[in-house]
Amino acid sequence: MFTKMKNIDSAFRYVRGFTMMVIVGCISICCYTVYKSFKTVGQMQDKVYILANGKALEAFASERKDNIPVEARDHVKTFHMNFFTLDPDDKVIKTNITKALYLADDSAKRIYDDLKENNFYSGIISGNISQTIQIDSVSIDTKEYPFRFKCYARQNIVRTTSVLKRSLITEGTLRNVSRSDNNPHGFLIERFYTLENKDLAVENRKQR
Asked: 83 near 131, Cβ under 8 Å?
């Protein structure tokens, strides 16, 4: 009788232990499956497919910190291209300046106001002058925040009879702001200042 009870008790403990192992195993498998599923979904969300010439090309998303130098340089270049590219057309000037001022604070706005007060833009229009800019390089210091930048560029000022070439060196800082259609990089230029803007050469234009 006692032997039979002992065998039943041993069998019960064996079944209970086996059942617990099965339950733990099932829970482990479920947790691993859920983990892998979330990881796979995350990896898929980092992939972007771009359709080009009828072919699907795969691109990969990356964290903002990985792209800060690239985005910061492009932000500075975009600001300078809009702020310093001028044509003898009031609408073109306003459009470019408006785009530029979305990317900078009042330090750039004050420069614009001073130039406007001194009839700089009126002189561009009345003199049929075009101004273009070529960015040579942009250095970004990301070791400290806000990030400091320095931009090296050249200007071509095209008049009716001549082309004036000028060097342009500017500096400022960049702070993070929300991205928007008007500011896709999510930076704002602060303490914008012109370090150098001097004449390099004057070329006479051929007259017909």
From this structure: no
Radius of gyration of the chain (CA): 32
pTM here? Answer: 0.70
- Give, to the nearest 10 degrees, the angle between helix 90-101 and helix 64-84: 150
Average pLDDT along the chain:
84
DSSP 8-state code for residue 41: H
Place of tokens 């985005």: 71
Peptide bond preceding 146 in cis form (omega within 30 of 0): yes
Find out whether 167 and 190 touch, Cβ atoms under 8 Å.
no
Residue with tokens 């082309």: 163
Any idea what the Cα angle at residue 139 is, between residues 141 and 132, rounded to 5°? 145
Helix-helix angle 106-117:64-84, to 10 degrees: 10
Backbone angles phi, psi at 33, to 5 degrees: -65, -45
136: amino acid identity, one letter: D
What is the C-alpha separation between 164 and 201, in angstroms, rounded?
Answer: 6
pLDDT one-digit tens code per residue, 141-159: 999 999 999 999 999 999 9
87 — pLDDT class (breaks 50, 70, 90): very high
Q: Which CATH number fits domain 64-204: 3.90.79.10, 3.40.640.10, 3.10.450.230, 3.30.420.40?
A: 3.10.450.230
